[in-house]
Structures are given as C-alpha cells and as structure tokens.
Amino acid sequence: MADAGNPPGQQPPLPIWRRLLGAPLRPVVTAWQVSITARIVLSTLILGAVVLSLTAWLMLSQISAGLVADKRDASLAQAEAEFSQVQEELDASASTGDEGAEQVVDQLVQNLASRGDSPLEHVVVLVGPLGDDDFSDGVRRESVDVGVDSLPTDLRDRVRVGSGTWWTYTTIDFVDEQDDRADGAGIAVGTRVQTPGGEAEYALYYLYPFAEQQRTLGLVARVVLLSGLLLMVLVAGVAWLVTRQVVTPVRLARRIAERLAAGRLEERMQVRGRDDIARLGQSFNQMAGNLQRQIRQLEDLSRMQRRFVSDVSHELRTPLTTVRMAAEVLHDARSSFDSATGRSAELLRRELDRFESLLTDLLEISRFDALAAHLELAQVDLGELADRVVEAQRPVAAAAGITVVVRVLPVPDTGSVSAEADPRRVERVVRNLVANAIAHSRSERVEVLVGADDHAAAVAVRDYGTGLRAGETTLVFNRFWRADPARARSGGGTGLGLAIALEDAQLHGGWLQAWGEPGLGSQFRLTLPRRAGNDLSRSPIPLVPTDLALVRSHRATAGTAPAAP
Amino acid sequence: MHTDLIEADHTQSSGALGGMHRGRVLVVDDDPSLAEMLTIVLRQEGFEPLVCSTGDQAMAAFRQHRPDIVLLDVMLPGLDGIDVCKQLRAESGVPIVMLTARGDTIDVVVGLESGADDYMVKPFKPKELVARIRARLRRFEEPSPEQITIRDVTIDVAGHSVRRDGTVVTLTPLEFDLLLCLARKPWQVFTREVLLEQVWGYRHAADTRLVNVHVQRLRSKIEHDPENPETVVTVRGVGYKAGTD
Fold first, then answer.
1. Domain A378-482+493-558 in CATH 3.20.20.80
2. Fewest CB atoms less than 10 Å from the CB: which of A91, A150, A208, B50?
3. CATH 1.10.10.10 is the classification of domain A276-369
4. What is the pLDDT of residues A30-51, one digit of tens each?
5. By the 8 A CB rule, do A165 and A189 touch?
6. Model-level pTM greater than 0.80?
C-alpha cells in the first residue's frame, strides 16, 4: 500500500522560458486558461492588430509611392523648363553684354533663387566651371547652403560626362536647418549649362525637398494609427460584448448545474426569448426536471424499501419473541418428553438462535443500506479488545483443537495500540474475523496481530489453513457468499458477517482487506485511522504476511504441519 | 381486542410455590400471544403476572394492583409506552423495564429518559428477562442501619431515603441503588461495565447508555448544578465515582 512515485512537492522541471517568464506571466496565463472572455478578446485583439498593421502598411506605402511619383513628375517638368530658360538667358546675355563670366553666373543663381513665382520649393546649386573634377577646380554657388552629400556622386558624374537632364532621389542636407528646411528626402535634377560664348560649362542642379509630402504622409500615418487604435478598442469591445452574451448564460448554467449537483434539485435556469441561449436553458431545465423526477422516484423507492425491510424485521420480532419463549419452555421440559419430541425441542431452539442472528444481521445490513448507521466514538485499546475477543472465543477454539494467540507488535512512541473508534463495531469486526478463522480455516493455529504507527492502527487475523483462492479475497466480503457452495453449512454463520464487518470498517474510514493463498492460509486485516475522520495511507501491518517463506519451507519438509514461528 | 385486565390466578401460583411471594409483575403488551407467553414464563419462575393490553388502561391497573415491577411494551395502541412510562414515574418509583422491537439509539434513549430503569430488545431470551426482573426486585436482605454521607447528601440505607441539606430527595429504587453503590466506596472509580453488573445485574458487557442516562437523572435530583456535578463525578475515559471534598 506504500505510495510509489514522486515525493510530494516535487514537480517536473519547467522549460527555461517558462521559469523566466513564469512569475510576471502567471496572471495572464491563468486568465487565459480560466476565462473564455479573456481568451476570445485577447485573440481577437491579436488578430485585429495583425490585420490592421498590414492594412496600414499597404495604405501608407501606396500613398507615399503616389505622392513621390507626383512630386517627381512635377519637379522634372519644372526643372526641364527652368533649364532651357536658363540656357536661353545665358545665350542672350552673351549677345547683349560682355560682362565677366563669374558675374553672369552669380547673377544667374541670384535670379533663379529669388524667382518668387516658382510653384515648387527648391534649392539651386551651380557648380563650375567644370574641369576634370567636380569641386576641386570649380566654384559651388547655392541659393541655400546644402551639404556636399546632397548631390550624389553618381548624379554629378552623369551630369559632367553626359549631356541632357539627369535626376535621382537623394537626401537633402541643409547646413542651416530651419523649420521649413529640415533634412529629408528629396529629388535632385541636374544638367549642364554653357556660359555665354561657350568658354565654360557649369553644372546646374535643382534640389526639390519632399518635406511637404513627408508632412502629408506623417499626417496620414497619424490618422491611420489613431483610427487603428480606435478600431482595436472597438473590436475588443465588440468581442467582449458578444462573448459576454454567450458566456453569461453559460456561467449561469454552470452555477445552476453546481447547485443541482449539490442536491438542490429544484434549481432551474431563467429562460428569456427564443434564441439559442433560451433553447439551451430550456433543454437544461428539461434535463434537470427529468433528473429530479428520476432521483425523487429512486429516493421514494429506496425509502419505501428500507422502511419495508425495517418494518418487516420489527414486525417479525414480536412473534419471534413468543416463539423463542415457547421454545425455551419446551427445551427446559425436554427431559419429560420422548426422545423424538425432546430432540425436536432441541432443534427448534438451536435453529431459532440461527434465525435470530440472521434477523439481527439483516437488520444491521439494512441499517447500513439506509445510511442510518452512526459511530459512537471512544478511545479503544485494540490490544485489550483483541484479548477480550479471543478470551470469549477460547472455549469454541479449544473444542476444535485450535490455538489462538494474540501478539501485540511494539509501537514506537505511544506504547499502547489505541484508536478513536466505535468499540461495539470494532469488537464485532474482530470477533467475526476470529470466529471465521476458527470455524472455516481448518488451521490448528490462529494468530491475532495488533499493531499501530502514528496514523493508523490495525488488527490482523492470520490462519495457516486452507487459504483463499485467487479472486476470493474480494468475494469473501459479498453477502451470503460461501467458499464452497457444495460444502455443508456446518458453521451456521449467517453469511453476512464479513459484509457487515466491511461496512463497519468503511464507516470508520478504515480498510478491511483479505489475503490468502491455497495451502498457505489467509490473513484478514482491519486498519483504522487513529484519529476518527483522518485518511489512511498505509497500514502498520503488511497485508501479505512476512512469515510466508517460513511456512513454505515447513510445508515442504513437514508436509501439512502448520508453522508456529 | 383484549381489553380486560387479566389477573393471574395467584392462589394457584402461591399454592404451587408454597406461599413464596416473589413479586407482582404488571405486563403491558398489546400482543395477546406474547402477553400469554410472558405470563406462562413468569409464573413458572414464581412471579405473579398481571396483563394489561392497552396503554390507556395501564395506569388504572397499576393503581389497582400496585405491582412490584412493570414490563412495558413501547409500541402500544392508544397511549404509547413512553407516555405510560412518564405517567408511572410521575407517581411512583416502581421499577420499569421497557420491551422494544427497536434497539436503535433514539428509541432506547427516549425510553430511558422517560424514566425506564432498563430495556430489553425483542427477541429476548426468557432467562435473560427473568434475570433482569430479579435484579430490579433484588433488595438487600437485611439492610444494615447504615448512614452514608457524601458531601451534603445523606443516605439512610435502612430507611431507603436520601436527604440533601436535610430535605428529602425522592429517588427511584434504581437511582438509590446507583447512588448507594457509588457512595459505599467513595475511593473507587466505577467503570460503566462494573456499574451495569452491580446495579443492573448484567453479567456481560451491555449497553453503557443505560448508565449515562441514569447518572444524568440522578444528578438532576441530587446535584445543585447538574452541569457541574460534585456528588457524582465523571472520571474522563474511565467512569464515575462519588465526589469527595
């Protein structure tokens, strides 16, 4: 009966992530496991967030691509127009005057920069005159100071080498940052222009920042984010509401079911409307109603039957008393009868004894069946009790030539083998076990072992007789069970003794178990908790006797003699 | 129904037993066969049985015949055994033995609390019944002119009376025997089993509730505060003893 397995308190090791995250995540995990609402709302939120993020990303990238394309087209168109105008102006200045090239160029940049009617915000950069290298031999003039990196090398190379207009996306790096001139993406368009007379070539760049587009995009992104958040709240709210509508009746049903299970059979669900929930309620109530009816019916039946058995037993008692007294009178006078009548009087009295014990046992069993048996607890010394029982049985045992011994196993702490139990019932159990061993075991020696530990006390009755066959260790406790149906009913027992003993043991929260092997004898063990109401986990006396090897060797050498350790 | 009071023919019985008077027994039982069987057995044992078949007539029969002991069936038509028992106790300390078909705790305790001295669960053996009746009728053959005092209770053994602080306390014979048994050996603790044997005449261990109920009844008569008894003291886990100062 000893428990095998993990000692209590030791759990299998957790995966490392669970150990690390265990503490902070535990409430969340618990809510996830316990609450359907939490689970549905949380999963809806996660799914919603994923879908919304995808949508937002798609939307923003589309918008930004559109904005950039528009800006690019407009910038290129304007740059083309500007470039041809600049070249025309340069050509014209060559024919009108003869100023220094430097001056012309400065003038040009000033003009271009200050051109107020320009539809697009832009920066003008003029580099030149172009030599082998872009900046080493040339002068750079800008309408607004921008960093060198604002003009990608790639673009500069193309403008220097090839003719025509070139463009690229870039990052405009303003040296002097202001509110409307923040660093940011933009487009750079460049071409070559020739000074009047064609003696020098300059690279002219227009830088169009995407600031406005970025502002627009930021605004759109904020709007998308905000509406996304609102949408999430809405989704969570809807999920919560919907789940609540479903879960509330389910919880209600659970509560009602719990009450039903606790025996309050009249509990019903409230049914409102005609929806699925209402149908659930209806079915639930129907089920509860049927259950209630069935249970009531069974209860009535069993109550009636119990009443009947009890009444019959009691009604039998008065005539039985009369018969019994009459039998006693006849028995006492049997010496004056002829032999047949005298023997009849003896038989009458003996069978009346049997009839009476049968009736008593039947009544006792019916009391157990009716759950009307109650314990009357006292401190019981099992050693004394066993002595008393054995002493009372000694004449019967002696007549059958059986030795009965009581052995009290040493108890570590307390000294005495006592338990909180109903003395009348415990004595009845032990008396029954000893009487059975004497009457049925065909053993020459019967041993009564008494033992205890801190939690349990036990009495075991060991015999060295015929023993029990496989499966009989449970059958013996059945009502009216006989070891051998063909065997004569010489013992005269009622056949209810062990059934009653088992009920008595169970009423104490104890065990009554049997062990037996053909030829090696049997052992019946009663185990009781030392404090009434405590649970049993093990018995201080092993169910399978420890002297088996000894008995076997004795059997092998001596044939049939029982072992006397 | 058998309503008439049957008075046993005691000229015959006393004649047969040579004038040995061993006590009148009033049998209150509604089962005619059992009642008749009881009279047969009781008469064989030398008692003088009287039979009454209903509870309503029991009091009249008791007043008329003044029996030495009453055998009372619990289940009676009309007034039941418990009520009869209470009425009897109200005017007499006559020993009462209840006959019951149910040995359940409740029935027994209710019977004992209504004033019965002892009870027998059917079916009983006639010898056992006779032994119980004898035990109830047993008197100390020659009461010594003894006077025993425990605390403020004085027992006059010969006069069969008990006084507390000078006032007479009415005890039933059983309660008197119980008190006397304890008072004679104030140094000894009596277990319930020993009391059952000495006071009730049981030879085997029997129902110890008998002792508990009667100790309670005795206490309610002789103690100042039955909740905190001083004259009949409980010794936890063992039994009872007479209180000493």
1. no
2. A91
3. no
4. 877 778 888 888 898 999 999 9
5. yes
6. no
